[in-house]
Input
Amino acid sequence: MKYDFDAITERRDTDSIKYDFAKKRGKPEGVIPLWVADMDFKTPPCVIDALIEKIRHGIFGYSETRQDYFEALRNWFSRQFGWNIQPEWLVKTPGVVFAICTAIRAFTGEGDAVLIQQPVYYPFSESVLANNRKLVVNQLAYSQGRYTIDFSDFEDKIIKNDVKLFILCSPHNPVGRVWTREELTILGELCLKHGVIVISDEIHADFTYPGHSHLVFSDIKPEFSDITITCTAPTKTFNLAGLHISNIFIPNREMRRKFRAELIRCGYSQSNIMGITACRAAYEGGSEWLTELKEYLSGNLDFVRSFLKQRLPQIRLVEPEGTYLVWLDFSALGLDDRELDDLIVNKAGLWLDAGTMFGAGGEGFQRINIACPRSVLEKAFNQLEQAIKT
Ligand SMILES: Cc1ncc(COP(=O)(O)O)c(C=O)c1O
Output
């Protein structure tokens, strides 16, 4: 490999939310942090170089993107997913969660129902509730270590609650599904049938494991693109979350107008110059790095799979099809969630995300972020084994 993903980069004392706030967030000092979704790998050299060049210039005035930025995006999405984006569709926001909150306010009124599929990335429910909308859950079905969608419940929930907006997580965090064309098509048809707008959060789209391909929901049918806000960002893919840049695509002109109007009400206009610079550099030059990263992550996943099989068979790996977040089923240990958290945090010395944070169906699970050097993962699983055995 050209890039060294085994290298340990010290992150303590760098104002890292993952490393520097254990005590403040109620965890003992010294826990191995494998929770929030950022990676312990340096961003590609092409991004670092572009940022250094920008810093050397020394002027950080208001910025806006130009044609070269859009071309970088166009080439990336076309190469990765065969998706042909148009310049007028693009609206930039400081983050995907920011865009989700904006869309909730732009397309629904107070008290309107918004549908999500739990267990799911917890800011989905937080965004709905914080904006005084009604949270409706179509719980994913779990059987034999795999998650599927209960479509009849999905439609029932839409009808019974007069759902206005559906937030799709694709690929799905935390259950790791890369939804198939058939699944996405059924969801889209149901949304069309009942006049439901779709926010498709595709921030994990670049992370799929061999045998699985991400499909852009909005690109499946022209009718879908007309009801969809597609949320993308280079921040998961290239480890840039602190630079706050995301690219939101809204083909429907009236929806775009409403979304922009809501951004104006928030007082948001131009993007952060560092985010713009990093995004363009990453999409222009980061593809070889990403290929190697994905290979490394596949190796990490192989490690987790074989460790659990050989040494902790009572813990079930929900085989991920995408994302670097792995959903582990601890239910066979027979612990309640307080006992499970105690085992993970206090006995094993790990900081993971407890399944209950992800809502309905999260009980008995923990989410672990495997985007770290393998030696860290080995240490973490050894500690887990010790804790369970004692
Ligand atoms: C599904 C999903 N959406 C959005 C985000 C965060 O996006 P942002 O930092 O751009 O708000 C994450 C981060 O983990 C995520 O997993």
Observations:
- The pocket of pyridoxal-5'-phosphate is lined by residues 37, 95-97, 121, 169, 173, 201, 203, 233, 235, 241, 246 (CB under 6 Å).
